[in-house]
Design goal:
Blueprint lengths: L8 E7 L9 H9 L11 H22 L7 H18 L5 E7 L6 H11 L3 E6 L6 H14 L6 E5 L6 H16 L7 E8 L3 H5 L4 H15 L8 E6 L12 H10 L3 E6 L7 H17 L5 E3 L7 H14 L4 E2 L12
Parallel strand pairs: 1-2, 1-3, 3-4, 4-9, 5-6, 5-7, 7-8
Length: 340
């Protein structure tokens, strides 16, 4: 049964969140490492370890956020995405829809957002993670927290669990890549490095579908690119921390390889939908410096999709499709969704 365009629809945009001041860095880190999806230990052991890690990492993290003016840009960027999506939905006749933001580890927390949604009194709630590829550490963590807080909402719930090959997401990536390629030296061979946030290997071994979905995204983007010659590309993973074995190859290792082979690189943040420390500091500063050390002939980083019109229109398409079901899943060739 089609949902009336006059229905009251709340769209919840989920993201990681980020500290809004240097004083917020340590509590943000504590919230991150106190999440069982990140550190799978019972309490109080997880609480104690989160306290220790947040104390140890606070100095380094503060230095990173100082490079960004003392705060993460993720909330204002997500607010811009929410406003653009609301306008897109309104243009399609959903005049009683409203977008809300729920961050996992800093304000606005899910508790705050649930209260705002309760006051809005929607007929339908669409849960839309700004993580195109599903992971237990991101999407599942956010959705489980939301459901634990929102059980009293009377609205029908619609979940978008992943969209690794969604048309708007892929079109936006391809458009941004083509624009960046146009500005690179024509006489230097270019390798595309699709860089995604890494995960500990043990999480993937337990069945997390994230790297498989990253590969789906990359294959769809490469297929979308309008290039005369076969595309030279690699998938790599960044942001490794701690002593555990992480999935690879690492972004740094791929940069070293490109330098040895005399390549220029175009780095695509393939699992991020907005700019934050992993793109503005890690990719733009730290990996750029590594590329110079390794003799990479040219290093260009593609912007995130952010408010790209194709991406926002694609999110609206997902919302419309989600209203027709309980769970909208982008996994191919399966009879289940990411949530089981």
């Amino acid at each position: 049964m089609a949902v009336s365009r006059q229905a009251r629809i709340a769209v919840i945009l989920f993201n990681l969140g980020g500290p809004d001041s240097l004083d917020a860095v340590r509590p943000f880190l504590f919230n991150l490492f106190n999440d069982r999806a990140i550190i799978n230990l019972p309490q109080p052991a997880r609480w104690c370890l989160a306290q220790l890690i947040s104390r140890l990492r606070a100095g380094t993290a503060c230095a990173i956020y100082s490079e960004l003016g003392g705060a993460s840009p993720i909330l204002p960027q997500t607010e811009n995405q929410a406003q653009a999506l609301a306008a897109q939905l309104a243009s399609r006749g959903f005049t009683h829809s409203k977008c809300f933001i729920a961050m996992r580890y800093w304000h606005p927390f899910a508790e705050e957002t649930v209260a705002a949604v309760r006051e809005f009194a929607p007929d339908h709630v669409i849960l839309l993670p700004l993580y195109p590829q599903f992971s237990t550490t991101t999407t599942q963590s956010s959705l489980e927290q939301w459901r634990g807080l929102s059980a009293d909402l009377a609205a029908r719930e619609h979940v978008i669990c992943c969209y690794p090959e969604a048309a708007g997401w892929i079109a936006a990536q391809a458009d941004l890549i083509q624009a960046s390629l146009a500005g690179m030296a024509a006489d230097v061979p270019v390798r595309l490095l699709f860089s995604a946030h890494g995960l500990p290997k043990k999480i993937v071994d337990q069945g997390d579908p994230y790297p498989g979905q990253v590969a789906q995204t990359v294959a769809a983007v490469v297929d979308k690119l309008d290039m005369a010659a076969p595309v030279d590309y690699e998938i790599c993973y960044q942001s490794r921390v701690g002593p555990l074995e992480w999935i690879g190859p690492s972004t740094e290792a791929c940069l070293e390889k490109a330098g040895e082979e005399g390549k220029a690189v175009l780095v695509i943040p393939i699992a991020f939908t907005s700019e934050h420390s992993e793109t503005l500091v890690e990719l733009d500063i730290e990996y750029r410096a590594a590329a110079e050390r390794f003799g990479v002939r040219e290093y260009i980083r593609v912007p995130t999709v952010s408010n790209h019109p194709a991406f926002i229109a694609g999110l609206a398409d997902l919302c419309e499709a989600a209203l027709a079901c309980d769970v909208l899943c982008g996994m191919n060739g399966t009879d289940r969704n990411c949530l089981g």
